[in-house]
Amino acid sequence: MSTQIHYRIDWRSRAVFPGAHASIQNGGGMEFSHHVDLLDAADPRRVDLHASLKDPFGKWLVRRFRQRSGISVYVLADLSASMGFAGKRRKLDTLADLTHALAYSAHRSGDRFGFIGCGAALQPEWYLPASQQTGAGIALSQRLRNFSPSGAGASALIEGCAHIARQRSLVFLVSDFHFPFELLDDILARLTPHHVVPVVLWDRAELEPPARWGLARLRDSESRRERFVFLTPRFAGDLAHIYARRRAELTQRFMQYRMQPLFMLDGFSADNVTAYFYSDHAAANAAAIESGTKAVITAYA
Fold first, then answer.
1. How far, in whole angstroms, is CA 131 from its chain's centroid?
2. Which of 106, 110, 152, 208 is the most buried (most CB within 10 A)?
């Protein structure tokens, strides 16, 4: 059974196709818009007698209503090698779970769903134009579970922004954001016309060294470079502080563009994504990451 995410927007859709969101389009909805002359809208069923009697020109006035419209929902995903990291939960499996849930949820809401996967280059096999074909998004999410990324860098996310419809859309920018802030600024600047939800995929195994004492071989997922590190409790604490600082810097960067990040630790939860839209997600996400970081610091202090 598919898991549904209940998302909402605080702006009006301009789409003409019907859906579940407030829009600027006139139609058969329940939200009153304005009055027009009966000669301009020949629908006597909606004549407003009270307003017509008050009209100084003696016109018969008809109520006009706004329809509920759909929107386009996109996943703009980082498919660089670092997204292949597998700790408590494989990052690409988390991305697949999120993609599956969003494709299903968009279909249930009458919205269009699209997916754009990028590494160092835009990858055509991971490009799905926005449509109401729910099966296409779900099939793509299944392919993600068998995908092993190998490219270095996520610079093509800039190119991916150009493949999002010009009409304002809900965009989930999904990555671990292990790339320079200069690239992040360029991406966010191109996405400002849209409603963007930055989804930060981290794993608790990234915060915790594999042992308290001893040697460990660390490998960079993208450059493939390896180095040996002598693990100590102090090293674990330093690593936790580095991630805490990175989290704060990322949050500050997103907030500069009026975007609130959604941090996902150790896998996907539809309830957490829904809570992001319907609760004080700023405090909730900050508390969740803070508690996880403090737990690591306490364990290795």
1. 17
2. 106
